[in-house]
Structure formats: C-alpha cells, structure tokens
C-alpha cells in the first residue's frame, strides 16, 4: 500500500484543496499517474481554467504532455488525465522531489492512516 496525494495551491502558495488516497499498486508509474489524475480531478471540480501541474516523475510528465503513453500499466489513467484536462489550460512541469515536500508529507501520512486533511 502506498499513499498518493495532490495539493492545489494559489500563486502565493496557500493550499486551496487537497486530495489523497491509499492505493495498492506494484508500479511507481501507476501511483504517480493516479496522483496526477487526482490533481486533474481537483482542476475539474473547481473549474479552474489555468493550472500548473508539477510532478517529480519526468517520464509521466512527458508521456501526458506529448500524449505518447509509453507505460502500459498507466495507459488508461494517462488517457483519462488528458481527457480531464481537455477544457483547461494546463502546464505540466517536472520538479525535483525535494521541491515538493508538502505532497510527499500528505502521501506519507495517508499511508500511515494519520492524514490531518482527511
């Protein structure tokens, strides 16, 4: 089991919304794709028109950005992300893990069953 999370922040860094879940998957790519899909769901839920997605998974970012879908295990999830983001202006960007510790903290707390934002 692993915890996954997505955080929505405004331009000043204030947290607007968060979504997290405990999932069972053998693939890091699938877990990362599910987290990016969560972010896409938040964008759709709030009807944001312009959004920046950041992930420390460069392969996933390139796959969704280029619609190349190279990973069979996360193919359907990646296609769903593209579909969810069809109506918004989305920028997908790679950032190192160390630059986004808040999401990692929420994912770890979710895995432990102690997420304060649930």
Automatic annotation (TrEMBL):
Q: What is the lineage of its organism?
A: Eukaryota, Viridiplantae, Streptophyta, Embryophyta, Tracheophyta
Name under which the protein is recorded: RNase H type-1 domain-containing protein
Q: Extract the Gene3D superfamilies matched here.
A: Ribonuclease H-like superfamily/Ribonuclease H
Q: Where is the RNase H type-1 domain?
A: 2-108
Q: InterPro entries this protein is in? A: RNase_H-like_dom_plant, RNase_H-like_EbsB-rel, RNaseH-like_sf, RNaseH_domain, RNaseH_sf
A Pfam match is RVT_3
From which source organism is this entry? Gossypium laxum
GO MF annotation: an example? RNA-DNA hybrid ribonuclease activity
